[in-house]
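Model the whole thing, not chain by chain.
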Amino acid sequence: MDVLTRRRFLVASGVVGATALAGGAAAYRLRDVLATAGDGDPRARTLVLVTLYGGNDGLHTVVPHADPAYRDARPDLAYSAEEVLRLDDGVGLNPALPGLHRAYGEGRLAVVRGVGYPKPDRSHFRSMDIWHTAQPDRPGTTGWLGRWLDGAGGDPRLAVSFEPALPPLLAGERGAGASVPVTERETTPRLGAEALAALGAAAPGESPARARAAACFADLRAVDGMVRQVRAADDGEGAEDDGESAPATATGGARASLDAQLDLVARCVEAGVVTRVFSVSLGGFDTHADEKQLQQVLLGQLDAALSRFADRMGRTDAGRRVVVAVYSEFGRRVRANASDGTDHGTASNVLLLGAPVDGGLHGEPPSLTDLDDGDLKFTTDFRDVYATLLERVLDTDPGAVLAGWRGRLTGVL
Amino acid sequence: MTEREAVAHLLRRATFGPTADEVDAAERAGFGATLDRLLTPDGPDRGAAATPAPAFGPDPAAALGKDAGREQRQQANRERRAQVTALTAWWLARMVAAEHQCDEKLLFFWHGHWATGAQKVRSAALMQRQLQTLRRLGRGPLVPLVDAMVRDPALILWLDGQQNTRRAPNENLARELMELFTLGIGGGYGEVDVKEGARALTGWTVDRGTGTARFVARRHDPGPKVILGRRAAFDAASFAALLAGRPEAARFVAGRLWFRYAGAQVPAPTDLAGPDTVGTLRRIFTAPAFAQTRDTLVKQPVEWLVGAARQLGVRPAALSEAGRRRLLSGLNALDQVPLRPPSVGGWPAGTAWLTTSSLQARLRLADQLAGAADAAVLDRLAAAPPAGRPEALARLLVVDRWSDRTRAALAPLAGEPRRLLVAALVSPEYAVS
């Protein structure tokens, strides 16, 4: 596409607008799927993808405290051996991650180190495009899970996001995942079911965007039905939008708390819905300044939400088939800047959490001295991680989604 | 396209949403005269004058001493948030009330372009000042605009410019300045230019007490820098001038305008960039390709809400405090609150807005709008015989024609004007202009 589509959300719009709905058929296909939809396959695994927007500092998530080059590069920011939560003699977790540290001790947390892609791009938007599309050379117009969804039949309920705007990673060639609001308990159908159904019909010859607008009415009925069932099963307290309390940086992420998003995921998983992929996010990791405190607050939110979720998942059969993957668009520069922060970097860790995960440290840690213009050189291609998730969690041939990619992680799932 | 359809298309894109009377007048005046009046409005804007901007005193938190207690700080932060809410509500009211609609919508474009978030700037006064700068310079050429923006206090705070010093430059502002605001990705710059550009911008800080940007010479790196192949002792002004003067910047910004006013379905014509932004807008609206973009552009939530409010005679300024809050929380549910862009990349576009989640929020907000509609508007709708009400509605909302699908959905509601309005406001024909 042209230069206009380069920002991350614009990719999404290009996607769904230009190609996905050229046929304008989503409404019909969805209804067809609805008619045949049973419950979720009880043996199927579920993927929960956690996107950390802003570029989480990987070196201060899994801290190589024993490496002298680390202390040299970050004299004022460095954590000491006593401060971190020990993983082995050389590395430890950020002190704000006690829950993940416990999961590591129980063998449920895998740390994949040095994950990145060739010719790293230090723009948030471009790099997030690359992670969303899994196309580092030239980010295209479909997300990697959107392409998986295309192959899995296109029912939007198979891939659900709890963000109001659809993340590009869920946009496919022919359809897209569903976005479900966290804060709304249910719809207020002042219009009535007939009017909503009538507005969801396709109109011959209309533009793809209008076809998409109409398809939303049909999708709404399907997704709303599913979520209403889930919520009726658990009439707990509603999730509140906590937008004011989170520290702000300039690079995006969902506004409902991660906890509230994961609470809905947990309820869906326990109810045995058909969804195989959930996308949730936490923003604010663009720590150019005063990083230590800010990142600890954010990692604390991540840790509390993830460990509560993982513990809850450990209590049911369906939950024990859930794999959580946590990533960010890039890590940060090895050397600190003068604002007690770090600028945009490259390779970083991907965390995998859940009962099916073989915990431990995986992949080669990148060298802190053999750098690429001040940044880490990646040791694991991010498509190895995606391919492994597609194959081991979503039971899909990764080649079809990742342009024939053959690399895999070994011994992680 | 008939003359009426052509001017309606122009008005739907150049303004937040025209009323039927405005389309009538434009049809009488013709396309050319309508465009002239949009781009160069004559006379004072009485709607804007009747919606005066709130005045904010000194920053509530900056006034606190170093020894202020926790409670005082919390109180100050509450005041700051209340001021930002007041500013947002005022701007929304002004978008609806303004007569110079093209200027008003252009300001919203620039806000999304230089997307700055009050959640980090935390100052209504500084956000207001940035809006004033964008309003003052947004119609003109790029160089003065970029020059003013690199020293805009809100932008500096948003992108950590005040942390950018000669001892260790902070790249945030320099990177986004090139990537998002002027050159665009592929605009001919590299990582070295980002690093050198950051050095050029060193030394600018923000004094929250006075609400101004200040240059601190000892924090500035006065040495020579090589940016885009040019070697000079660049500072903020000469760096801004270098970027804004590049042909890539003119092309990039013109492309962004096309993207927001015409959409992504029809490629932008070449040579779109005019000598200034008003000139570029003229080229956009008169391009043959512009006419082909009808029915393809998804309205952003703010455009959808403000346009509907204008057509239904809803004046946010005249609503109760609770009513205004409901409008803002409706926008919040739609994920587009002015002054709170999701990131420095601005808001999404196109079908990213067309999700199940946003449809639910649009249904609720449409219901509020229909409930607050001016009685005269509802009366006029009810005056049409039931069978003619969908047509009356199409005229009211400046929709060229309903599809058979939507006509079938509207017909059973003809006897209930409020529900009829809700259905029309959420219909695909109204959501996509």
